[in-house]
């Protein structure tokens, strides 16, 4: 007799509740924590007119919660970082609607991790059945909502294998992460590089030596309202200059984060000695887990060569070495990171497209893209700055 699971979506994560969500998803990844997703909702960064309508899935069996999945109904493709704009444009050329679509992702956060959390009590064979039934449930939602497809973004490699085995379309991507190989300090790290690459990095850091700068990491529980206001001003100013808007996230979101999950937050404040005294000029918000340092948001009120690299990369590497952190994920994209010691790593997503003709075309695209990404990562590994044999 096959196991029947029950599926339900909710429009607010609080309808699932922190105990049920946390017992399944855990606390190890800051971005899949209940508090992170709840902060997005109560601050208005998702929901309303944001184009991210929560539809989180709760799975039950025999009256018990056995799985959860973050899910959103999307009316655009902003804030996802697995780019499907070309797919939407192709739909438009054929007078078809690509939006809405269903997306299982962490909004505005291209960080890999668990997207479907299943209780340990569900046996391996039952997990396969649960995922099959989940796919059928999502297909039914597509019909109900007149949506074009569903997309699972930045899941782990184990989930990727399951999606491929289930014949869903899968995409390969890449990011650049720094790996701690037991370095004693920053000089020990750059000593593993070729002479020219090592000198370039040290020169890049030295150009800030005479700027009167100081860098101060503040633990989440010690961040003051003044610190937070400074960071938000930097974040919004930099976003506005780069994108013409003040960013996807607001003061209420960051304030709620500090109130609910300060244990996973580090704020880096950059200050400068001037004739008027010491003033804050830049900031970066980091998140931590047992194994990983995540560099997420940054901003500056001044233009200064090398400040971005120092604040967002080198200070993070220094921190990881000092505190024995194994991996530093400094954010999406940026192949310039490779020459600074960040290595290409694979990222994964899975997709199900309702329209049969477009599904065939997109499958062909993903297969060609996979070959290109594999070649791209292989080429980048050849230009890593490390000495041969390291």
Automatic annotation (TrEMBL):
Transmembrane segments: none
Pfam families: FemAB_like
Entries under InterPro entries matching the protein: Acyl_CoA_acyltransferase, FemAB-like
Name of the protein described by the UniProt record: GNAT family N-acetyltransferase
UniProt organism field: Shewanella colwelliana
Top-level taxonomy: Bacteria, Pseudomonadati, Pseudomonadota, Gammaproteobacteria, Alteromonadales
